[in-house]
Amino acid sequence: MQLGETAEEACLRELYEETGLQLEIERLAFIHENFFTGQESDFLNKVNCHELSFYFLMKPLTENLSVKSESFGTDGSKEFLKWIPIAEYKNYKAFPTFFADELKNLSVNSQIKRIVTTE
C-alpha cells in the first residue's frame, strides 16, 4: 500500500499493475490474520510474522479477462497467473489454503468472515 491509499485503492491499483485487468470491488469478503515464521532476506534468521489480509469480491468492467502478467517473485523468478475453477482450488499450491472450502460456500449475502491461521 502507498501512504494515504485505502485497502480498496491498493487492491485495484496492484491488480491493474500486475495483470492489466480493471475490476470493480463489490464488497469485502474475508479478513485473514496469519501468524507464521518467516526469514529475513539479508540474514538467515527466522522472524515471527503477523500478516493481515483483506480479500474482496470483485467483478470485471469488461468481458476480456486475459491476464498480462509482468509480475516477479521476491527471488526474481517470473510469476504465472491462471484462472482456476473454485472446485479445483484444492488441487493447486495456492494460498490461503482455507479458500478451497470457504469460496465454495460464499454467497452474495454472506457476512464478512474473519479467519485466523498459522500457515
UniProtKB/TrEMBL annotation:
Coiled-coil region: none
Signal peptide extent: none
Pfam families associated with the record: NUDIX
Domain of life: Bacteria
InterPro entries listed in its UniProt record: NUDIX_hydrolase-like_dom_sf (IPR015797), NUDIX_hydrolase_dom (IPR000086)
Gene3D superfamilies recorded: Nucleoside Triphosphate Pyrophosphohydrolase (3.90.79.10)
Ranges of residues in domain Nudix hydrolase: 3-91
Name of the featured protein: Nudix hydrolase domain-containing protein
Organism expressing this protein natively: Lactococcus lactis subsp. lactis (strain IL1403) (Streptococcus lactis)
